[in-house]
Each structure stands twice: as C-alpha cells, then as structure tokens.
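Tokenise the fold.
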Amino acid sequence: MDKLSQLALDVSGLWDKYASMYLSGMGKTLLLAVIGTVIGCLIGFLCGILQTIPCTQRDPIWKKVLLKVIRAIVRIYVEVFRGTPMILQAVFIFFGLPYFTGNALQWTNIWVVSILVVSINTGAYMSESVRGGIISVDPGQTEGAKAIGMTHVQTMLHVILPQAIRNIIPQIGNNFIINIKDTSVMFIIGFTEFFATHKGVVGATYKYFPSAAIEMVGYLTMTLVASFLLRKLEKKMDGSNSYDLVQVDALTMTAGNYNHPGRGTPFDERNPEAVKSVLREELRRQAERDEAVRQGQLAETRRQNAAGDHERREE
C-alpha cells in the first residue's frame, strides 16, 4: 500500500507540473494517427483496386503487360513495408535522403516525414484488407452489374466498394488503433509525440515508472475512445433493422425494403389479423376475377352455339 500511495503521489506531482506537455503529446499522437490512417486508407484502396482489375485472354497485350507490372510493383511495396518495422522505415526515410544525396537534400519538416512513414506503412496493410474486401463480395453482383450494362469502374464505385468498405471497417479501425500506439516510434527521428514527451519528463525528473504509468493510462484512454467511436460508426453503417420484405406487393419487392406501416392499420403485416384480412380480401378479389372470366367464357360458348344453329337452319 505504501508503494501504491507513493506512486499516486508521484503521478499526481508529475501531472500537476507537466500536464500541458502530456496533453500536447497526446494531441500530436492523435493527429498523426488520424492523418496517417486516412492517407494510408487512400493508398490501400488504390493498391487494392489495382490488384483486382480483371484481365481476360481477349484483352490487348499492352493491358496484360501493364497490369502485371503494376501488380508486381504493388506486391513489392506491400511485402517490404509489411515485413519491416516502422521504426526502421522512419530511420531509412529520414536519414536515407541526405545519405544518398550527400546532404544536398534534407527533410526540413518533421511532420511531413512522420505522416509519410505512417501513411505508407498503413497503406501496405490496408492494400491487402481492401483486396480481401473486394474479393469477399459475391461475384454474382459483378455479373449482374455487367448484365445491365455497367462498366468496371461503375460496378466498382456503385456496387462493390460500398459493400467492401463495410466489410473492412473493423480492419480500418484496427489499423487506426495500431497507429495510435506505433506513432511512439517517431521519437527516433525527433518527433515529439506522447512517448517522446514521456522521455523528456523522465530526463528532467528521473521518475521513469510514474511517468510510464501516465503514458499507459493515456494510450489506453485514446484507444478505448477510438474503439467506442468506431463501433458507433459500424452500427451507423449497418442502418436500421426496422424493415421487412413484402411478399404480396411486386413493386415493393422490386424496391427492396420499406418502412413498416402504422401498427393496427389494415396494412400492418406485423399484425396477424391484419395480414389475414388482407389475404382474404385478395382471395375474394381473385375469385371475383375468376368468376368473371368463367362467365365470359360461357357467354362466348353460347354465342358460338347460337351462330352454329343459325347456319344449320339456313342450310
């Protein structure tokens, strides 16, 4: 208990003195994670779509060669940036430019480098997620879109991608949460995010564990809030479930769905009695139509018989 009390006092003292630094670090971490995830998703969508462009034997040779080259480039990019740590990618990009140019070119804005590293790393992971999301959509929908004359671009934009995005929303959220934590490696190139703030405070106070406790709570808070908001987004994209398909109205079945009529009305299919009443009325009308057809057939038969009798008498 004494140790816990001492830890609480140390944490309180650090927070009172360095709260603005911690909050600033958290803000930079969140901003970098959001921007990096958004740009990474755009890169991932581009790479995922390029990998799923159809190619048939009837296509011209230049298209086949071009697609093979593009897919090879995308595959190399994905394998390299998924197979190496982000911290080494940051070091290679930040220090590699002056190294290969003999210090003629150097990065002057640490934000640009950090966003670039997080974005291309996220894009490599999102590329495979997008490709999997596109493949997971039922091929019959692509065939149906082609059957009504839609081009590949139209099919992708209006049929495939809306469904693929919903399928990969959890993976996008997962990458965002990973980026919140992995931005901590950007301290290696001098970016003062949340973890770099912790290192600065420790260097000034030599209280490593109390500062680490603040870091732990801060990262956990950011990831929990992000998870909560992402789940809300998933539910929002799922839409309302207060609709059903109609089985007796062809126009409504063509439309796909509709809102329930008011409860207790004759059109409320959730009311068993109302459903029975509608069905009885429909059966009665069908019986009337059948009777009218039958009467018309009898009248036509009588007319034909009368005409035949008249002809025989004339003969």
Q: What stands out?
A: Residues 243-315 form one domain. The chain has two domains: 8-238, 243-315.
